[in-house]
Amino acid sequence: MHAQLNEPIEVLVKFYKSQVVPSFFKWRKKTYRVEKVNLVHHEKEGENQIYYFSVSDNANFFRLAFSTRDLSWKMKELYNEG
Amino acid sequence: MKGKIVLHLDMNSYFASVEQQANPFLRGKPVAICAYLSPRGAIIASSTEAKAKGIKVGVGVQEAKRLAPDVVFVENEPAKYRCVTARIFKIMSEYSDCLEPYSIDEAFLELTGWAKNIKEAEKIGLELKERIKNEVGEWLKCSIGISYTKFLAKFAGDIAPKNGMVSITSENLESYLNRELTDAWGIGRAMSVRLRLLGIQTLLELKQVDPIFIKRQLGSYGYYLWANVNGQEITKLENGIKIPKSIGHSYCLAKRTTEKDYLRTVLAKLCEKSGRRLRNLELEAKNATLYLQYMSGAHLTKTIAAGESFFTTHEFLAPLYDFLTDAQLLGPVRMMAMTLTKLSPVSDQLGLFSNRNKIKNLSRAMDLVNNRYGEYTVTSGLLFNSEKIARDRVGFRKTVSFEQ
Questions:
Q1: Looking at the complex, does the CB of residue A81 fall below 8 Å from at least one CB of chain B?
Q2: pLDDT tens across B10-29, in order?
């Protein structure tokens, strides 16, 4: 399944070696543990910087977006083999 | 220069590898990157798994599905690739003071004075591979070429196996040259035909030919090729980002049409994107060219020259817009492109008979608003409802700017 989304999420992050690493996030009332941060990239929208965290657990790929304008997190993409 | 060392780094299956890096569930699968996820779209990059099934650049989406029913199509994401490129180039720049980005996935590194000999350069090459793997992504692989000229370093990188490294020295040069002419940088199909007509079948034969003969037959470009395969440095590395020779954008239309309203909107979008880049680089242009390609393959081109110079989007959009309005189209248009050429640094010299500074400053003010609040916050009414037209795209052409 592959879905493009734009839903608010709650994220627990750790600050590790001057990096921000999402560890857990809550989406649609379920908590997911991030097993691996595969790639981080950013994009500009005017003065707003959006940081995209491509993360995965054992069954899913998620793309989480952090906006520097309002310090909010969103779930942008989901991919799994189900 | 004796003892010169140049390293060339070329990322393997770059766009697809970045996508596989981001999403590990795509690894080991045929992945095809498209500019647009539409049935009429074409593949702009593919993973090694997709290439093994015949899905190469330019193959259509339908054909790709036929070649590999399990192929995964991914729409390209320029911001992601530029960001990864910036990180790779940043790592490379720690090894020398002279890095020349060649394209989004290729760069040259001047190691003269930074590595004592080829062996030390090879050590740097291996370290770069390891650091890219550890600091950027474990799925990202690159081929590295090392030699004593820029041309030979690129040649070594091009013939290196995927994820491999080749070093060419004056001692082993000939052993690598017994190859097709087109394996060399700068020899296309047309040039290889001309060389064959002169009895030159391989790069080794090109090396051994009389330089006076080749210059007489093919002019200075023939001599340039001969000097390159003989290990004579013709072009040196240029540090950093260069001022481009031209700035332009093209768009394969989502709908093939003769409808002027739609075509004018596309033109306005292409002009605005080009104008933004022109002004960001603090440049002015003397010429603006519009190119229309019909479904039949025929094309229509119009170049307009500036009275003084082009700086604001309106200055070159208006005449091209009028031209398009009056043009007799021969059929549905499939592709549009616009290019600004004869670029030079912007001058705010006051004109004797006109004063453009006011309009230039207005344009700069609009750019500042768009920089702060996002593209197209303040723009021409012509761009209304044009969000889906000519979105940000990236190609493998020679890159002159990438995100830092």
A1: yes
A2: 999 999 999 999 999 999 99
